[in-house]
Inverse folding.
């Protein structure tokens, strides 16, 4: 986590943000579905809200929060909170990008430290700039979600596992 903070700080200091002609802050809303893969899996339908600061025409950092509904038996609802870094490859009308989210997922149905935990995801997507300052975007990537599960042999013991899922999202930036 410290390495990520140092890298983002260096990136922020090295990019001249004052030479921009556009908006500095951007908001977006997105919805999607993460289909769980592997032996231990959980699929999630989610809605998220993001608030980003544009570092340059091609790079932004921000934060996001959302609500997820799982197919799980015990933890139906999730609340992910995350930091994000987005790097567009071009500044054209259709712009492919790479996005990285790192954060923590809470479940109102479990105590802190139990159930869900650290989450990170890497996405590739494309912005479709439909109006000045507004865009529709599609992204797909792979999501990793820490989760404590019961040991099959002893129900008093937890095993730390990372749930994995293929995540597809659509969103609107304004």
């Amino acid at each position: 986590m410290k390495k990520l903070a140092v890298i983002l700080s260096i990136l922020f200091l090295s990019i001249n943000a004052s030479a921009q002609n556009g908006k500095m802050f951007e908001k977006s809303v997105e919805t999607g579905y993460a289909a769980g893969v592997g032996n231990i899996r959980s699929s999630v339908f989610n809605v998220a809200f993001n608030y980003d600061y544009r570092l340059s025409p091609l790079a932004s950092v921000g934060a996001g929060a959302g609500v997820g509904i799982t197919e799980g038996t015990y933890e139906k609802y999730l609340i992910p909170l995350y930091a994000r870094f987005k790097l567009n490859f071009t500044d054209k009308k259709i712009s492919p990008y790479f996005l990285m989210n790192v954060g923590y997922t809470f479940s109102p149905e479990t105590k802190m430290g139990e159930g869900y935990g650290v989450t990170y995801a890497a996405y590739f997507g494309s912005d479709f700039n439909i109006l000045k300052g507004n865009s529709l975007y599609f992204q797909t990537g792979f999501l990793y979600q820490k989760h404590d599960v019961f040991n099959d042999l002893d129900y008093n013991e937890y095993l730390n596992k990372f749930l994995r899922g293929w995540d597809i999202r659509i969103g609107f930036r304004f």
In short: The chain has one domain: 23-173. Residues 16-20 have pLDDT under 50 and may be disordered.
